[in-house]
Amino acid sequence: MALSSAATPGERVRRRLGSLVLLAVTVVFFFPYLWMLASSLKPTADVFKYGFPLSWKTFLPPHPTLENYATIFSEFGFGRNLLNSLIVVVCQVVLTLVVCAGAGFVFGRFRFRGSRVLFGLVMVASFIPFEVVMVPMYVVTRELRLTDTYAGLFLPWVANAIGIFLIRQSVQEVPRSLDEAAAIDGASTWRTFVQIILPNLRPALLTVGLISAVAGWNQFLWPLIAVQDPDKQVVQVAIATFTDPGQLPTWGELFAAASVAALPLLIIFLFLQRYYIRGVVTSGMKG
Amino acid sequence: MTTQALRTDAVRRRTASTAVRAPRSHKLTLGILLAPACAGLAIFQLGPLVYALLNSLRQVSLLDLTRSKYVGLANYAELLQDMTFWHSMGNTLLYVVGKLAVQVPLAFALAVLLDRKLRGTALARAALFAPLVTSGAVIAVIWNLMYFPDTGLFNAIIDWSGLPTQPFLTSSAQALPAILLVGIWEDIGFSVLIFLAGLQAVPASVYEAAELDGVRGFRLARFVTLPLLRRTTMVVTFMATVFSFRVFTPIFVMTQGGPDNATNNAVYFMYQQAFQFSNLGYASAVGVTVIILVAGLLAIQARLLRTDLEY
After folding, report:
1. Count of the separate structural domains present in chain A
2. Domain-located, residue A80
3. What are phi and psi of A124, to 5 degrees?
4. Could you tell me if residue A2 is inside a domain?
5. Residues B80-121 pLDDT 10s
6. How far is CA A227 from CA A216, B175, B200, in A?
7. d(Cα A64, Cα B209) in Å, to the nearest integer?
8. H or E element, residue B70
9. CB-nearest partner of B142 from A58, A133, A258
């Protein structure tokens, strides 16, 4: 906007006020994370001791310790949950990319009888909120004997309508002359897809992969329903049901587990913001 | 017709004239590439949608699917008389209204601010978007303890400022607003993102003209930017509405629908009916009702925000 080099005094004051508001926003939105980290580094007795009344010790651990992190892995079997989440996310991302790349290529390049109807159905699927179909989805998964399995946790999501849409868009941006040339050279459809189209889809694949990874790692309601066996449970459900019901949770450990569940994605996000945000904006989907 | 479509057309005509029929292997390849996606969507998305519609007309238990009975609209009739259902729908609508009233204007203001590239923009952006990649479970766990009665962080702050401490989640008057606040914190960044994308699509010439006319500051936002962003605003309200209907995790983790059903909502009610009472048909009827309600709300919003404005 107004990029006049000589800003008026009024404009300067306004800019400074704006920056102040942004600082307040930063504090409000980063603060809970900071507090989570600080609490996870406190011995459990300190979490409340220094939480009330307010002091600097509320926000910084006066006696930092990694004890909580050690406990969640040694006593609560959190490593198992972590491994489950990792397996589910890796399978989900790889399969999502394979499935969406194939379908996106076909929809982006070819017209055949029924292709428009088929693509219309994909779009319809992208509008169905999961929560509304969760009960029949659970029934289907159970009838396929996939409850309490890793496959039951990732298979329902690999045909990702939004992923198909995003990849179709970028297939259409690849110049047609490229695959026409390949066809003239006698390349099969399959070879054209793998050697000509796929290398051009890297940014789109990264976007779809990130969206799928974030959604897979963060999913809560579906594993809550589809997995009963605690040994098969994922990180997010594990932290929500961390302590025995009726027993007071040990807060330091709870926060340590929450930090482990949240930080990897936050760090990845800081580096790959651009790709993730592009997917979120163009698709209207949240992780 | 777009240039893309024109080009596709030209290519098709050319291939038609040389009359080369696609080899069978080509069709087979396309089929193999397309099949997994179609199967996945049919089994896990569209199939369940149809199944939900059918189930809403039947009395069927989650424990034994074979013993089901067609009951027509009886599930819907029962819903109309179910006070807990009405209560949960009321809470859902309150949540939607509260969310739209706070989140949309706030997100617009923040997006305008971020668009000005002031000092601190990068950090504020990262902070606003961080909750987008944080799971609802983690967010609920953190906020749960911040809301803790007597000794929680908010009460520490309130106490420090000399005001009486508050019950928050344990009070039926404060629980829903408390859950709403978590929801706004959690996905306002998403609304800001969409507004930002909209702002960046407005041509600079519009602002230059406005500046020549001496329109700036609040009036610029109110009379120039906002009208230009009507379509974006529509997307933002659509998304905020849909997400509001979908709230589950904070309720499950923080209040279990309580106290006294004060935070029970549509999805939580449906979850209870299906997985606590095994009442599959009834739960499906709730799901179908929610779809209809969301569609209706979106239609109303589309009408209110309808625009022919183009830039």
Report:
1. 2
2. yes
3. -60, -45
4. no
5. 999 999 999 999 999 999 999 999 999 999 999 999 888 989
6. 15, 29, 44
7. 57
8. strand B68-70
9. A258
Reply yes or no on whether the pLDDT at B15 is more than 60: no
Asked if the ipTM is above 0.95, the reply is no
CATH number of the domain enclosing B191: 1.10.3720.10
**A177 within domain boundaries:** yes
Per-residue pLDDT reduced to its tens digit, A77-87: 899 999 999 99
Q: Is the pTM of this model over 0.90?
A: no
Is B59 inside a domain boundary? no
Selecting from A136, A164, A221 the residue whose C-beta is nearest the C-beta of B51 gives A136
Are A218 and B136 in contact (CB < 8 Å)?
Answer: yes
Please say if the pLDDT value at position A283 is more than 90: no
| Distances A58 to A42, A68, B151, B168 between C-alpha atoms, Å | 10, 17, 12, 20
Q: Decide if B9 touches A, using CB distance below 8 A.
A: no
Nearest-Cα distance to chain B for A136, in Å, is: 5
Nearest CA in chain B to A273: B126
* B161 domain-assigned: yes
Q: DSSP string of chain A?
A: ----SS--HHHHHHHHHHHHHHHHHHHHHHHHHHHHHHHHTS-HHHHHHTTSS--HHHHS-SS--SHHHHHHHHTS-HHHHHHHHHHHHHHHHHHHHHHHHHHHHHHHH---TTHHHHHHHHHHHHHS-HHHHHHHHHHHHHHTT-TTSHHHHHHHHHS-HHHHHHHHHHHHHS-HHHHHHHHHTT--HHHIIIIIIHHHTHHHHHHHHHHHHHHHHH--HHHHHH---GGG--HHHHHHT-S-TTS---HHHHHHHHHHHHHHHHHHHHHHHHHHHHHHHHHT---
Residues 75-104 in B contacting A (C-alpha not used; CB under 8 Å): none
Enter the tokens of residue A240. 């929500």
Tell me how long chain B is.
311
Indicate whether A114 and A94 sit together in one domain.
Answer: yes
Q: Which of the residues A16, A40, A81, A133 would you substitute to probe the B interface, choosing the one with the greatest number of B C-beta atoms within 10 Å?
A: A133
HSE, CB side, 13 Å, CA atoms: give it for residue A272: 22
Q: Cβ of A240 and B246 within 8 Å?
A: no
Is residue B59 within a helix (H) or strand (E), and if so which, with residue range?
strand B58-60
Amino acid at B219: R
Residue B149 has phi, psi (to 5 degrees) of -65, 150
Inter-chain touch B45–A128, beta carbons under 8 Å: yes
Quote the number of domains for chain B. 1
